[in-house]
Every structure is written in C-alpha cells, then in structure tokens.
Amino acid sequence: AAGVIQSPRHLIKEKRETATLKCYPIPRHDTVYWYQQGPGQDPQFLISFYEKMQSDKGSIPDRFSAQQFSDYHSELNMSSLELGDSALYFCASSLQGAEGYTFGSGTRLTVV
Amino acid sequence: AQKVTQAQTEISVVEKEDVTLDCVYETRDTTYYLFWYKQPPSGELVFLIRRNSFDEQNEISGRYSWNFQKSTSSFNFTITASQVVDSAVYFCALSEVDSSYKLIFGSGTRLLVRP
C-alpha cells in the first residue's frame, strides 16, 4: 500500500539558509500534518491542512511557512535557519480525522 | 487542555520479562482517539494501535496488549515476553475531534531490553 512520502530524507544546511521539505500524502487522504521532533523530545505539532486549507496551527515559528498544493502534496519552508531548527520533521496524513493516520519516514534536518 | 503523561522516562528489563508502559491523558472532549507509536533508533514512527473513546475493549496483538480505562484516563501498553528488538522509545498520543485531530504526544518511554 502507498505510504506517506517525505523528501529529502536528510538535509544539511548552514545557519541563515533556507530549507524546503516536501510531503506526499496517501492518495485520497484529505488532511496533512507537520510535526517537529527535536533531539530527545516528543514530536510537536506545527501546522495542518484540510483539503488544501490551513486547518490548525501550533507553535510554528514565523520563519516557517507551509502550504498544500492542488495535487495535495505539502511543503514546509523554513527560512533564516537556526541551530535549534535541527530536528526530525514528520509529515502525516489522514482521512476524515483520525482514520488511517499515517506518518512518513521523516526528514532529518541538520543546521550547521 | 489536552495533555498526555508518560511518567516512566526509561525502563530496563531482561529479555522475556513482561513490561507495562503507562499512559495517562487529560481531555475535555467526549470524542477522542488514543495512539501508541514505537520509535526505534532509526527514527521512524511505527504505528502500533489506535482506539477511540467509545471503545474500551482491551486489545491483544501477539505479544502486545493494551488496557484502556476511561475511569482512570489511562491507556497502558504491555509487552509480554519482551525481546531485544522491542528496545525503542514508545510514545502515547491523544487526538481530539475539537482540535483538528492533531496528535498531542507524551514525552515517551525509552525501553531497553537486555539479552
């Protein structure tokens, strides 16, 4: 079965650079979620989209933005990167709420 | 406000021992979902189980079992006859209908199973 695809798997950026993470949800899933997991931490909700509209927002820095496109894939854009942005970034998708809630394998971002 | 508490930061057991991971949650919603995820050293989040708030039936899947008790707001996870491959961080999470179904995670329990 198709899973949630995230790219890239690993990304190394320098401070003050910009990074773009991509997420391809499971076909027909109507909701996409982004989470950030710092070292030794639990995943923290950043933002979600339902049918391409932003549906909820967590503690997402102003330097971060996200959108969902017409083909339902989503991108998380992070600018002016800081060392503290180094983390695992997960995307998840679901259908009608909690049905089929599925995580991607994550993107490991390292800021040097 | 919603909250998930996993009071056990780390647990160490010897292979073949049974181990129970505790999870206590707080919510004002009457409709919610509870999840358990396993995160091995490779980093991915492996889905283990999802239960909704209207289904208090305990569940068993192989060596894994879950005890959901609304009266104590707990959703505990037991591994029977633990194996070295069970070593990982385990997260309990809560999803509420009124909060766009985003997951609120507990802080996780690191399980080490020694040979």
Describe the structure.
The complex is a heterodimer of chains A (112) and B (115). By secondary structure, chain A is mainly beta. In chain A, 0% of the residues lie in helices and 54% in strands. In chain A, strands 2, 4, 5, 6, 9, 10 and 11 form a 7-stranded mixed β-sheet that branches. Chain B is built from no helices and 12 strands. Chain B is globular. The relative contact order of chain B is 0.35. The A-B interface holds A 31, 33, 35, 41-45, 48, 50, 55-56, 58, 88, 90, 92, 94, 97-98, 101-103, 105-106, 108 and B 33, 35, 37, 43-45, 47, 50, 52, 91, 95, 97, 99-108.
Please outline the helices and strands.
The complex is a heterodimer of chains A (112) and B (115).
Chain A: E1 5-7, E2 10-13, E3 19-24, E4 31-37, E5 44-50, E6 53-57, E7 64-68, E8 74-78, E9 87-95, E10 99-103, E11 107-111
Parallel strand pairs in A: 2-11
Antiparallel strand pairs in A: 1-3, 3-8, 4-5, 4-9, 5-6, 7-8, 9-10, 9-11
Chain B: E1 3-5, E2 10-14, E3 19-21, E4 24-26, E5 32-39, E6 46-52, E7 59-61, E8 64-69, E9 74-79, E10 88-96, E11 103-105, E12 109-114
Parallel strand pairs in B: 2-12
Antiparallel strand pairs in B: 1-4, 3-9, 5-6, 5-10, 7-8, 8-9, 10-11, 10-12
- In angstroms, what separates the terminal alpha carbons of chain A? 37 Å
**How is the main sheet of chain A built?**
7 strands, mixed
| Low-confidence sequence ranges of chain A | none
Number of strands of chain A: 11
Alpha-beta classification of chain B: mainly beta
TL;DR?
Chain A is mostly beta strands and 112 residues long.
Question: Tags for this entry?
Answer:
heterodimer; A: 112 residues; mainly beta; seven-stranded mixed β-sheet; four-stranded antiparallel β-sheet; 54% strand; globular; B: 115 residues; six-stranded mixed β-sheet
